[in-house]
Amino acid sequence: MGSQSRKRETMRTKLFPLTVVVLGLMLCHEPGIDAQENPDFHVVVNMVQLNVAVTDKNGHYITGLRPKDFAIAEDGILEKTATFAEGNEPARSLRELGEDSSAPPSLATRSSDGALGSSFDSQIRGANVFVLFDTSNYMYRGFVFAQDAITEFIRSLESADKIALYSYSRDLSRAAPLTSDRSQVVRAVRSTVAGDEAALYNALLLTLKDAAQNTGRKVVVVFSNGPDNSSVVPPEDVAEFAQSAGVSIYMISTQKAQLEPVSTAVFDRMTAATGGKAYFAKDWQDEHRAFASVRDDLAHLYSLSYYPKANTNTGWRAITVKLIGDQLKKYKIRTRNGYRPQPSRFSSENRTTVPGVVPQ
């Protein structure tokens, strides 16, 4: 019996390398898989998109800037702008804008499905706006006023924008999926009811993950009437995901949140890190003004993108955007301050990209 066991072990030892070779040949000849590709874990970073607000010292928007007025750096490496748009204009390559004759056409206008030309423009035009409405028990007083403010905001957005309405208390409700049909979203607002404890950060993370699946400008507008008292997700993790996914967060809260200094500080840090803004409304009329400010911000954002140059850093990558020229340096810039590339397993047929980054 011992002799037979040794023989079987010897056969397995001899056959194992052969099996590996055969499997390797099968993979190489499988349709769509290049023999030179090694299906391993990689960091895939293609086109990084930024929403950039430019204002003067009084908060007035600066319009009419061109790609040459901006300088983008990632980890200190100067990057080359690939596409540019102002407001709800369609994003166009610098070649299309007549500002870069050296840009390779295959690089400048390629969309996520690999097509060239106007298909990219249609994906980037307008914003995907996710409204996250606090329907927790903090909202019993003034619930109807909040619904009115959100309804007015939805109706006032540009026609190019698509809108989704989510609500939350302890759980998240996807009341209306992303759509250009304003009436559908308004009906969803009117159907919301106030309820349980508030798990803001849990709901916000789920909303951000939904938003990250979309191409183009992505923003989440949160209405909160109080602090979080039920989440298991730390706000730092939520903020980092939003930065890496390229989603700007706007927070509109009442003064109840300001009664808890920690919530106030978290709202300020989270919105600043993602390129959004935080508002603390004194009353329901002030909330209408806050929503109007968000609408104006979306209408005046510059959309810039770039293809990152070679960078061995697989951790956090810092992004800085500056204005060029003495006359422009006095203005303020607001945008996200970085992202973290995620390792993705891919093949030539199924390639997964970094969240918030438009793939080639």
Helix-strand layout with pairing:
Blueprint: H1 2-29, E1 41-43, E2 47-55, E3 70-74, E4 77-79, E5 81-86, E6 92-93, H2 105-108, H3 118-124, E7 127-134, H4 143-156, E8 162-168, E9 172-179, H5 182-191, H6 200-212, E10 217-224, H7 235-245, E11 247-254, H8 255-258, H9 261-274, E12 278-281, H10 284-300, E13 302-306, E14 317-323, E15 332-334, E16 338-339, E17 343-345, E18 357-358
Parallel strand pairs: 7-8, 7-10, 10-11, 11-12
Antiparallel strand pairs: 1-17, 2-13, 2-15, 2-18, 3-4, 3-14, 5-6, 5-13, 8-9, 14-16
Helix pairs in contact: 4-5, 4-10, 6-7, 7-9
Structure description:
This protein has 360 residues and is α+β, with helices and mostly antiparallel strands. The chain folds into 3 domains: 1-30; 41-87 and 90-124 and 301-358, no CATH class; 127-300, von Willebrand factor, type A domain (Rossmann fold), CATH 3.40.50. The protein is built from 10 helices and 18 strands. Strands 2, 5, 6, 13, 15 and 18 form a 6-stranded antiparallel β-sheet that branches. Strand 8 and strand 9 form a beta hairpin.
